Structure formats: structure tokens, C-alpha cells
């Protein structure tokens, strides 16, 4: 073997070794180190489908959905089997791309018709798209393949509820209840089914069991309990809930504002600020909860300075690409406004204050940050 052949062999072996090291680190919970080694393996062997898949899983679990989607796509490119297609469809589903996910799940099933995970994922996409009858059939198919597929049975129950067939849910609830002592049982999802089917007390027990296992979900569970009348509504949505939600939506956020039937809150807020920002000098504007920059695009030509503040790093990355802000900051908007007294003429905000139960803290911070005769203009209706 000549020197060039030895170098190529060593390089290939290096990618496999880095992958195995990453696997070991991942199992030990050393996620950051595992991610680094998956990336190194991919750098040595770009077509390493398993490394793309495992790296994508880490990115998904740490709310970096756009990058996770890219690596799941590459896994499909280099290893186009049913599992790779299903992984890609799952990340699209997580980002609310239901139509796209549906098509890819169907592709996975064309390769492997007896793949319960793909049937369950397709059923979930169909439920979100309002096709409850076909969703029911795919949940049933998943259960034929794997009778112990809890999520498929929960999905079947939800499809039945949506069709008003509550009596048929009882048998599925009883079967799920018998499995609820299993350590991996999805209490939160089961609680959602129970709540939708009209059993709030049993749903509350499930939510509390989920919370005992995942204490970081306290705010999410509090919102669910409050929606059932079983607790007080939190003062505001938690940071963890918001970070995860907007990470999943960032890539496709602007699409929701396109066209006359899209979200118009940003346009309404921008129009309301025109008088104050009119003229050659304009005014200093803070875009509170700026997201991807929907308001910023409309105010840039009218503002002397434009500063954006948002909690979501992926949303800020989208805003930064537009090159419209003088400054962009990541953090809590109430804290940010409190730390910038008398710093602006306008505070503009759209689809951000929906995450607050009470607005006193926001109004106090806005009043502190605004100059005399300043304007706080916001749109609170969700898109």
C-alpha cells in the first residue's frame, strides 16, 4: 500500500472512530462533545448518513430545528430508506409543516408499508390538517403492526374525539391505563386525550405525573391545567416554552405573513406609528419581540435608529440576515426595556404580548424606556 492509499484508509477509519466516540459520549450525556465528534466525522466523510442522523437528533433536542432539518435531509440523500424519510418528516411535523411532512411519510411507507412509526407520524400530520378519518385509519394500521404503540393509540383516540365518537374512546383509554405504570409512558399526551374526551380529573393526574418526571415543564403543564380550570393562569409563558416554540417556527415564520390573508399585526402596528416616525429625522424605535423583523422591515425607512430585542436566537438569526437593525439583542424584553430608560420614541410590538397573562410589568417597563410623548404600539392577537 502506498502513502496515498494509507492516508485515505486512515481518513475513512478516522470518521468511523469519531462516530463511535460520539455515540459513547452521547450515551454518557456529554452532548456537546458528542456533537463536536459527529461534526468531525461528517467533515471527514460527508456522506456518513448515520452521523448526519445522530447530529440532527442532537440539534432537534436542543431546539436548533432548521439545522436539524438540513442534516436529516442529508441523511435521506445518502441513505434513502424509510427510517431516514420518517426522521425528516418528523422534524417538518415539529415545525408545523404538515403538508410537506405528510408527503414524506407517504414516501417512507411506499418503501416500508409495515413501518408503524411512519403510519403514526402520517396520522399526526393528517389530524393537524383536519383529515380525521384517514388519520384514524393510519393509527389503526400502526396498532395492527405494534399493538403496544402508545402514541398511535392516543392519536387514534384523538381522531375519534374530533369525529364526536367519544364512546369508542373508552376501550382505548382502558388499554392505555393498563400501560401507564411503564417508565416510558407518555403521560402528557395521554392527559391531552383525557382532557379532550371529557375526563379532566384523570387528565390532571396524568399532567402531574408528567411533571414529576419532567419538572422543567412546569410552566407548560400549568398552562394545560389552567385551560381545564384546574389552576391559575401563569403570569407569562416560560422562557423554555417560548424558546422551543419559536425555534420550531423561525425558518417559516415570514411565510405566515405573506399575502392579504396572512398575519397583519406587524402592518397594523407599523401604520399606527407613522405619525410619530414621519419626517426626515424619524425617531428612535425599539422593536419589542422583533422575531424575524416583520415590523422592522416596515419601519426601517421611517426610523432614525431601529433596535430589536427577542428571546429566540433562531428568530434573531433570520432578522440579522435582513440587515435592517442598528442593534439586535437576545433576552427578556421587560428586563431590556427597564435597562434602557428614556432611550426611544417608539416601542413597537406584534404577536408578543400574547405570551403575558398580565401586562402591568410590560407597561411599566415601556413607560420607563420611552421619552416624553413617546408611543407604545402593540398588537396582541395571535396569528
Explain the layout of strands and helices:
Layout (H helix, E strand, L loop, with lengths): L2 H25 L3 H14 L4 H13 L3 H14 L3 H13 L3 H14 L4 H13 L3 H14 L4 H13 L6 H11 L7 H11 L2 H14 L4 H10 L11 H11 L15 H8 L1 H4 L6 E5 L5 H6 L5 E6 L2 H9 L5 E4 L2 H6 L5 E7 L9 H10 E10 L4
Parallel strand pairs: 1-2, 1-4, 2-3, 4-5
Report on the architecture of this protein.
By secondary structure, the chain is of the alpha/beta class. It has helices at residues 3-27, 31-44, 49-61, 65-78, 82-94, 98-111, 116-128, 132-145, 150-162, 169-179, 187-197, 200-213, 218-227, 239-249, 265-272, 274-277, 294-299, 313-321, 333-338, 360-369, and strands at residues 284-288, 305-310, 327-330, 344-350, 370-379. The protein has a domain at 261-379: 3-Layer(aba) Sandwich (Rossmann fold), CATH 3.40.50.150. Helix content is 61%, strand content 8%. Helix 1 (3-27) packs antiparallel against helix 2 (31-44), helix 4 (65-78) packs antiparallel against helix 5 and helix 9 (150-162) runs parallel beside helix 11 (187-197). It starts with a helix and ends with a strand.
Amino acid at each position: 500500500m502506498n502513502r496515498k492509499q494509507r492516508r485515505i484508509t486512515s481518513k475513512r477509519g478516522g470518521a468511523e472512530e469519531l462516530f463511535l466516540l460520539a455515540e459513547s459520549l452521547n450515551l454518557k450525556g456529554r452532548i456537546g462533545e458528542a456533537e463536536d465528534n459527529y461534526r468531525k466525522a461528517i467533515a471527514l466523510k460527508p456522506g456518513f448518513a448515520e452521523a448526519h442522523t445522530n447530529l440532527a437528533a442532537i440539534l432537534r433536542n436542543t431546539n436548533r430545528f432548521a439545522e436539524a432539518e438540513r442534516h436529516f435531509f442529508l441523511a435521506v440523500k445518502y441513505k434513502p430508506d424509510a427510517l431516514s424519510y420518517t426522521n425528516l418528516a418528523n422534524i417538518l411535523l415539529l415545525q408545523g409543516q404538515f403538508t410537506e411532512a405528510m408527503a414524506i411519510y407517504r414516501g417512507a411507507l411506499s418503501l416500508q408499508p409495515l413501518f408503524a412509526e411512519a403510519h403514526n407520524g402520517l396520522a399526526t400530520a393528517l389530524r393537524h390538517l383536519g383529515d380525521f378519518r384517514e388519520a384514524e385509519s393510519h393509527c389503526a394500521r400502526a396498532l395492527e403492526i405494534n399493538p403496544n404503540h402508545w402514541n398511535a393509540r392516543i392519536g387514534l383516540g384523538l381522531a375519534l374525539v374530533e369525529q364526536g365518537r367519544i364512546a369508542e374512546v373508552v376501550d382505548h383509554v382502558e388499554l392505555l391505563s393498563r400501560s401507564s405504570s411503564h417508565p416510558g409512558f407518555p403521560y402528557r399526551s395521554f392527559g391531552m386525550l383525557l382532557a379532550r374526551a371529557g375526563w379532566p380529573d384523570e387528565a390532571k393526574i396524568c399532567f402531574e405525573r408528567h411533571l414529576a418526571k419532567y419538572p422543567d415543564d412546569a410552566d407548560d403543564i400549568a398552562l394545560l391545567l389552567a385551560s381545564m380550570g384546574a389552576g391559575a393562569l401563569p403570569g407569562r409563558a416560560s422562557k423554555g416554552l417560548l424558546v422551543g416554540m419559536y425555534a420550531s417556527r423561525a425558518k417559516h415564520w415570514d411565510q405566515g405573513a405573506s399575502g392579504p390573508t396572512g398575519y397583519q399585526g406587524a402592518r397594523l402596528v407599523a401604520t399606527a406609528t407613522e405619525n410619530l416616525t414621519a419626517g426626515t429625522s424619524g425617531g428612535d424605535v425599539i422593536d419589542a419581540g422583533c422575531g424575524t423583523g416583520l415590523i422592522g422591515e416596515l419601519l426601517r425607512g421611517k426610523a432614525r435608529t431601529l433596535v430589536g430585542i427577542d428571546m429566540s436566537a433562531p428568530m434573531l438569526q433570520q432578522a440579522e440576515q435582513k440587515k435592517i437593525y442598528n442593534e439586535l439583542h437576545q433576552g427578556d424584553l421587560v428586563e431590556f426595556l427597564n435597562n434602557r430608560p428614556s432611550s426611544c420614541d417608539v416601542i413597537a410590538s406584534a404577536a408578543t404580548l400574547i405570551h403575558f397573562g398580565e401586562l402591568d410589568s410590560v407597561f411599566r417597563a415601556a413607560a420607563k424606556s420611552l421619552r416624553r410623548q413617546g408611543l407604545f404600539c402593540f398588537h396582541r392577537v395571535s396569528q
